[in-house]
Amino acid sequence: MACTLEADSLYKEYPGGVVAVKGVSLKAGQGRTSLMGPNGSGKTTTLSMLAGALKPSRGVVRVCGYDLWGGEWIEARKHIGYAPQRMPFREKLSGMENLIWYGLLRGLGLSESRRRARSLSEELGLSEYINRSVASYSGGMRRRLSLAAALMGDPDVLILDEPTSGLDPRAREELWHLIEVSLKDLTIVFSTHISVEAELHSDYVYIFNEGVIVTEGRPGELIEKHAPKPRIIVYVRGDAEPLPVNGVKPEVVARGVYMYPVEDPREGIRRIVDAYSLHGVAVERIETRRPGLEEVFFTVTGRRLEEG
Q: What pTM, to 2 d.p., does this model score?
């Protein structure tokens, strides 16, 4: 049976009365659970409390049934692997030396740390680079090394804070393929501000905004509930005002950029072009956008995801 990670009514208040997380409750089991939201929405603070790195002001975290912030904290931490956005590696040491160091920190002996480091470097595609200094690693290799370091203690729960931050699209896909193939039996909780990443790589998603969870569910279910219609984005020339089409007023994305919800994209484009042509407004470009979690975020918060 997979290990479950649960949080009940987590709060985090900093000196000065700043409340970063306000009563967050969530549950994650085997598979991939994401915390999606803009920067500053409380995702990293929540993950830090789930990982045992930051003590909550109040609330309870249970890992495999053990109270992480109570008397069972030693047992609870044995089940957690945590990779923050910037893993504190020793740059002059090799990847292997860093992994051995993390193994020793997790209570493994020297020989077991070496064995585990070699095994993980092979599994995660690091073997070719493992004896080079970390200072020479690319962003993608650092992310793989962070995964390996988090896995040194053979955890049941893996917590990843923005695991693909700073990577190009190809490196992101390679890392996700690695996670989905090699780590599919674990309970994985990750944060992201990239809506497509949460949509493609989550079994379940919690959407954060201003320190609270505003909605949750399976990605497809959230899209169907909150953003079921395709959108057509129209780019018009000059300062032309947005025009209603069939009585529907568009959302103003920016000056001269307007978004219309439609049932049928092909018919919608025709009607939009006809309406603007009738008023003598030149349409420079039209895009069709399939609804996704970015639209869900806008629907439930009234904000664009990138505003955070």
A: 0.85
